[in-house]
Design brief:
Its main location: membrane. GO terms for molecular function: antiporter activity; xenobiotic transmembrane transporter activity. It holds the Pfam family MatE. By secondary structure, the protein is mostly helical. It has one domain. The protein contains 16 helices and no strands. α3 packs parallel to α7, α3 runs parallel beside α11 and α10 runs antiparallel to α11. The chain is globular.
């Protein structure tokens, strides 16, 4: 038990996730920095396209995320076989969904970009980038399912090492294809797209072989024929509200990018550069939030709900301290950092204004990340879904359009509405977690099951409620 507890401790889970996220941040920063050497228009296209890809990712992240939570819960209750079956099904179903998305993006890149209001002069670049990178979305689907499954077994180091290799390969190919180095063709934005797909393919292969040995019983190729309807129903029960939640976020972000595109290409480029800088602000906090989700799901599966309740607040305060420091450092050196990406004075000025607002945005994000992940870990995913639908669509999108476009406040107005959305969702999540309603209900169910099983009058936590101690 002590060895297992150490494996699922917040620190042991969080630091490899942070390294992995940090490397992903470096990957994105290197991408943006190198693409900026092509043109600011190329940067705008990459930022716009990535929002589209992230929005579509929710179609398979639903399965991967729901499966990840269940894997941690099943391992917490010492049910490794069910955890193994859930992981196999998640990879298989995610791959099928990814193939469908890849086909659509490969065949209709221009039509999709036009529908989302991308300026006409950016369409040729968008068609190239979306068709190639979007055509490889199946790789992202498989990687998401594989890494989620591996991470929720307590092995957060494996995906981290894969991220290290992926970064090295991606930076090398980016440099080679953009600048025509080492005898490679000078392909510009086309080269960035090819580089992205190549490294994702290599990472998917590495994660797949790692996945095969992640459970007590090694997974073989013939095991991919397995399908358990009840367990798949459990994945969907937890996963579909997560999918709706994430799709709300991604699609509202995509709409926000569309609003910004209406304002102008400089504003779109500024927001893209800000995405890169913001990633540095919250990635350490997000690693804590992801780690606490795994830890709470594991504790919840083991019936240790009192510990699960307290660890969420510890993670939230740790994360708040981290993101506040990160946001302040970015604010201090923001102008110099933005100058690395572009020489356009208007874009830099817009970015610096947003960095001040970022000091308000990041704490709200952290509260959301910690408490939403805590609620998701115990299966309370419908609550986070409904609150997200309400706040994101009414405040982050509807109010942002009215303030930013109709009232003419522009990018600053849109950003203020994004901040308000984060704090509204954070407040309602805090209210829900402090109420302990879902945890108490689960504890009573466990106690009832214990009574039926042995007539002793106590579940896994004994006669006295752990939450009433």
């Amino acid at each position: 038990m002590a060895k297992t507890d150490k494996k699922f401790s917040l620190g042991m889970l969080a630091w490899p996730i942070f390294i992995e996220l940090f490397l992903q941040f470096l990957l994105g920063a290197a991408d943006t920095l190198m693409v900026s050497r092509i043109s600011d228009d190329a940067v705008a296209v990459v930022g716009f396209s990535n929002q589209l890809f992230q929005a579509l990712m929710t179609l398979f992240i639903t399965i991967a995320s729901g499966a990840g939570i269940l894997i941690a819960q099943k391992l917490g209750s010492r049910n490794s076989e069910d955890a193994r079956t859930i992981a196999i099904m998640a990879v298989k179903v995610s791959a099928v969904i990814g193939i469908v998305i890849s086909i659509v993006l490969y065949l209709m890149p221009g039509e999709i970009a036009s529908l989302l209001q991308l300026p006409n002069h950016l369409l040729p670049l968008a068609e190239t980038y979306i068709s190639i990178v979007g055509g490889g979305m199946v790789l992202i689907a498989v990687m998401a399912a594989l890494s989620n499954s591996i991470r929720n077994t307590g092995n957060t180091k494996g995906p981290m090492y894969t991220a290290i290799g992926m970064n090295v390969v991606h930076v090398f190919f980016n440099y080679a294809f953009i600048f025509g180095a080492f005898g490679f063709p000078k392909w510009g934005l086309l080269g960035v797209a090819v580089s992205t797909v190549l490294c994702r393919l290599l990472a998917a292969i590495v994660l797949f072989f790692m996945f095969l040995g992640s459970f007590e019983r090694t997974i073989s190729i013939r095991d991919f024929n397995v399908f358990n309807r009840k367990l798949f129903g459990d994945i969907l029960r937890i996963g579909w509200p997560l999918g709706v939640n994430m799709s709300c976020w991604f699609f509202t972000q995509l709409l926000i990018f569309s609003f910004i595109a209406i304002i102008g290409s400089n504003e779109l480029a500024a927001r893209t550069y800000m995405n890169t800088l913001e990633a540095f602000c919250f990635m350490l906090g997000y690693s804590v939030a992801l780690a606490v989700q795994i830890q709470i799901a594991h504790l919840y599966g083991a019936g240790r709900v009192k510990e699960a309740y307290g660890i969420a607040f510890r993670a939230m305060w740790i994360g708040l301290a981290v993101v506040a420091v990160n946001a302040f450092l970015i604010f201090l050196f923001g102008r110099q950092l933005l100058g690395l990406f572009t020489e356009n004075a208007e874009i830099v000025s817009l970015g610096v204004s947003l960095l001040g607002l970022n000091l308000l945005l990041q704490p709200g994000k952290m509260i959301n990340m910690a408490l939403n992940n805590a609620l998701n870990a115990v299966g309370d995913t419908r609550y986070t879904m409904w609150t997200s639908m309400f706040s994101m669509w009414l405040i982050a999108t509807g109010l942002a359009y009215w303030v930013g476009i109709e009232l003419g406040w522009g990018l600053i107005g849109i950003y203020l509405c994004m901040i308000l959305d984060e704090y509204v969702r954070g407040a309602v999540s805090l209210f829900r977690w402090r109420g302990q309603k879902f945890l108490r209900k689960a504890e009573r169910s466990e106690a009832d099951a214990g009574i039926k099983a042995d007539g002793s009058g106590g579940g896994p936590l004994g006669k006295q409620s752990a939450l009433d101690v």
